[in-house]
Amino acid sequence: MHAPRYWYPTDDATPWQATLLHPLGALYAAGTRRRLAAGTAYRAGVPVICVGNVNAGGTGKTPNVIALAERLGSRGATVAIVSRGYKGRAVGPVQVDPAVHTAADVGDEPLLLAAFAPTWVARNRAAGVRAAEAQGATHILLDDGLQSPAVHKDAALMVVDAGLGFGNGAVIPAGPLREPVAAALSRTDLVVTVGPRDTQDRFTARWGHLITRPRVTAELKPLQTGMPWAGLRVLAFAGIGHPEKFFATLRGLGADVVHAEPLADHQALTPALFSRLERDAATHAAQLVTTEKDAVRLPSAVRPKVLTLPVRLSYDDPAPIDALLDRLDREAHKE
User: Fold this and answer.
1) Do the beta carbons of residue 324 and residue 155 sit within 8 Å?
2) What are phi and psi of 162, to 5 degrees?
3) Interval 40-63 mean pLDDT
């Protein structure tokens, strides 16, 4: 699914579609409020940190989960990640094993996350948290779940794409929001906006007045792997929330992107689709390249044919992140 254009207008005017669909958005928001109010949250015996968002679609949650897992690990924590395994068939709870599971089993994001910390997939988030606790986790990261009442959150981060902001500010289907921003912020400890400096500045000008919680700015940066991207002819494809950001990153590294193929978020990379991409790359005398998240969906037999561009999240000032983790550790030691 691609986001409707009226979700992210190019000016501040309210699109007519959003106005027309506003009553349905109000019903959607009311449903979220009722679900949160009626839920009975499971309270884990270890700190649970939710990395969620208010926008539907990709905002940078997965890179934030990876960054937090690495940060907690450097502090001596035994970290586990719990995900619902979007688009995977496993009900769980099951621990992700990249040697056994495919994206069709557990979803693409859990396969990627499992390289950084033990990762559990569970449609029932509380069951996943219990499984991670039983395995000895001292800290649990919830991948998504800000709008879920299933698990008590000791801390919650709201991740926002700085370039897209909150779109037209309306709730699904009138806009991209799962609930009003103020409602989500009331259950949030820290806001992380992801994007380069110019988009951060635009976000501040447009949406800064709404942010009532501490904010950390961050940017996705390519890993220095020694790969000579400059001048390399590439056919790039990506099935992430906003593929154009991936294509822009490649161009920023000097790659000659002779063709950019945007796919739907989490789109299955079928043999027919890959064959077409391979033919197109041959026609352009170009190297196939994709994201880490897309690479885990590729059949193992074709992965050697595709280069991957790894990126990692860099916090401009991680002090608020560390302060939050310090607080959680103090609270855990009191209990």
Assistant:
1) yes
2) -60, -30
3) 91
All residues at 6 or more sequence positions from 57 whose CB lies less than 8 Å from its CB, including other chains: 3, 176, 241, 242, 265
Strand-pair partners of 139: 79
**Beta-carbon contacts of residue 213 (< 8 Å; ≥ 6 apart):** 158, 185, 188, 189, 190, 191
pLDDT digits (tens, 9 = 90+) for 69-90: 999 999 999 999 999 988 889 8
**Burial classification of residue 318, based on how many CB atoms lie within 10 Å of its CB (0-12 exposed, 13-18 middle, 19 or more buried):** middle
Residues 12-28 pLDDT 10s: 778 899 999 999 999 99
* pLDDT tens-place string over residues 289-301: 999 988 988 888 8
How would you label 27-60 residue by residue, b for 16+ Cβ within 10 Å and e otherwise? ebbeebeeebeeeeebebebbbbbbbbbbbbbbb
Q: What is the SS3 assignment for 317?
A: coil
Q: To which H or E segment does residue 196 belong?
A: none
End-to-end Cα separation, the chain, in angstroms: 45
